[in-house]
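Field reference: "sequence" (input) and "structure" (output). Example, Protein PBN1:
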Amino acid sequence: MRERITYFHPPGAAIDPKQLEIRDTIVKGPATEAVREHKITLTLPELPSELASLLRDLQDLHLRWATSASYETLEPFSSRVSPGLHVSYTPLKKDYDPEKLCTALQAFGRLDCSSEEVYISLPNEEEKAPSTSFFYNELEKLDGFAKRLSTVVCSGPTAGECRKQLQDLKDAVSLDISYDSTSDSVKLQALWPLQQREISVPASPKGRTEVGILGIDAPPNMEAHQIGASGVLTVIGENKEPSPVIFAFEARHRAAPGSFTSKFQQPTGLHPTLQLSLSGASPPTDGEAECAPYAYFTFPKVIFADRYQLAGDLFLASKNLTATKYVSEPVDLEAPAYTTKPWGSNVLLELAPPKDGAAETAWTVEVPLHLRYLKPTPTGKEEAGIPYPVVFWACDSGEEVPYSVSPFDRVSLGYDGLFSPSTKFWHVSPESEAGGRLINNIKVPVVTEGASQWVGVGTAAVVAVGFLWVLLKLVGGYAKSGHSTVTEKAEDDKKKQ
């Protein structure tokens, strides 16, 4: 097992290495403003046998979770996903049954994921290969996951410290769990936001623990498209003094200037419009060959975007949209939410910023959406939470870039697979409209439970009245037509006589 804890501080917040207390079992230091990342790498033999058996049936597995709370971060931790739990997996065989995986996912809470119909398929260039399946759930906290996991992995004399570290997950803003059959290893990566925090890292009893205290820097010969970092590193139990380091690396995800907010226009009705307001309109850099702004949406089944409505160029232009780049399938445009099998849908839209816009030019985007019918409720109303999208500038230089060598690289976020491997993502930071949450709440009108019975009776009555009206019209028309025919025949007989 390998463990890496990194404290990444902003400029001016570095600490004196002499203030670090380095022992054989722990590293301690004074409080400093920093982002904290905790990364653990395990091999399959180090996992519980049931979990290892589950992973051996998969080519890869990626779990991405993000908090619904607004938070601050620093480069190189700029990448984002919409709030909630995102799960994608590729089986080794086409006839894979996801029920075994779903059972393991119950560690996060009660998730409806055992049926293949719940998942959506992600694009796959290889036709004969098993497709990658994707699932989403509106999970806002990791408290339950930390509690359940502690009963499985924490035991022995270090159980108390193990439970404490897992309990810290309740304050994390993101969690990644990845498995790749080519490396035969599992990586767990948690991130805590930028805030004042004390440096305290105990040694892992089962492996190597590396501690880094770093900040942004500019090492010699660093190229314009790279990020530089400097600071100190130490390995608990191996080093008595921290080792100074300075290095540069390619960053797939960067922080773009400006911010955005997301809200529903009022009144919403059954066809609400989601409005994105962006504070800047200029591409993040001048050195990239091609840059365009995008928004990647994760819509629970209660709401969806109509791909046909978003197909017209003139309509898109009126909403400050350029094109619909991707809509996941299937998306039933008519079914109510309670009969819809898939969890929901993903949509990638290319945005149309104002031409010749200055960096500080504010602009808005409108996305027309449609609510599904929900089950009747006692109040006649239901509230749904729609997570903020991910907004970014995608810049493609067309050149092969070794992003994977970065110690902080992050992949399989959903939208990155829709672009070429040479694409760099400049993320626009989201700002909460109210309450500090990156969730848009919307009230959905539904039928009142008591009235739902009368709806059926009323519908039947309307159908019956309509049927009788049509029948009377047909009978009346036939009688009139028949009488006219008899009269005409009588007149013809008289003429013949």
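The chain is about 20% helix and 40% strand.
Helices lie at 49-55, 99-105, 143-153, 159-167, 313-318, 449-496.
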